[in-house]
Write a structure and sequence with these properties.
single chain; mainly alpha; about 70% helix
Length: about 210
């Protein structure tokens, strides 16, 4: 196995680890600094003591997606769009308590939040598309493990799309967010998206179901 292959496997593993660890580190970062209340969404951690973790991990995530070449030009375009959208999510926060504390202060908090949410939806949607249509590609005959990996990719994509749909219901239907916020349903739906995406990248990085 040459050095280029090793570097790409490592990159895939890092993307997977960052995606899976992201929600957990936000909670732990806030708890360790004495900020106990769990936030209603991942984005709200921007306004807590985990704000630097939130921005730092999103930037790391985005840069790795931008640096990843993939199978072909289409794969490259998808990862680039997802990476750019991830950076927008990091630098354009949702509305919070300190509305003056963000990068592009010439924009109103409402506009900044609109950019944040639209880019988050873009990122999540492209995650599912990437797994279902790109990760399942192969050159030559399918090995038994490749068939199993493809099932994981497709199931993960469906989980992501189903979670996005549920997030839309929670946010858009009056009263649903308030009724489910006590157990932070929206936060866990976002986390499920990242965990499904991260798991697929670890599989792609040959942590499990490796072709020998």
């Amino acid at each position: 196995m040459n050095k280029i292959t090793i570097s790409y496997l490592t990159m895939r593993k890092i993307i997977g680890i960052v995606a899976i660890a992201f929600p957990i580190l936000l909670i732990l970062g806030a708890l360790m600094s004495g900020y106990a209340p769990m936030q209603p969404s991942l984005s709200q951690y921007y306004w807590t003591t985990s704000g630097d973790i939130f921005v730092g991990m999103l930037v790391t995530f985005g840069i790795f997606l931008l640096a990843y070449n993939g199978y072909d030009k289409k794969d490259r375009a998808l990862t680039m769009i997802a990476g750019i959208a991830m950076l927008f999510v990091a630098f354009f926060p949702c509305e919070g308590s300190d509305t003056a504390n963000y990068l592009f202060t010439f924009l109103t908090p409402k506009i900044t939040a609109m950019v944040h949410y639209s880019m988050a939806i873009t990122t999540f949607s492209f995650m599912g598309f990437m797994l279902f249509f790109q990760f399942t590609k192969t050159k030559g005959n399918l090995s038994n493990n490749k068939v199993k990996r493809n099932k994981i990719y497709k199931i993960s994509a469906i989980i992501i799309w189903a979670s996005i749909l549920c997030m839309g219901i929670v946010k858009l239907i009056p009263g649903v967010f308030e009724a489910t916020n006590s157990f932070r349903l929206f936060f866990w739906l976002e986390s499920i998206v990242l965990w499904a995406f991260g798991t697929s990248w670890l599989v792609k990085g040959e942590v499990i179901l490796k072709d020998i």
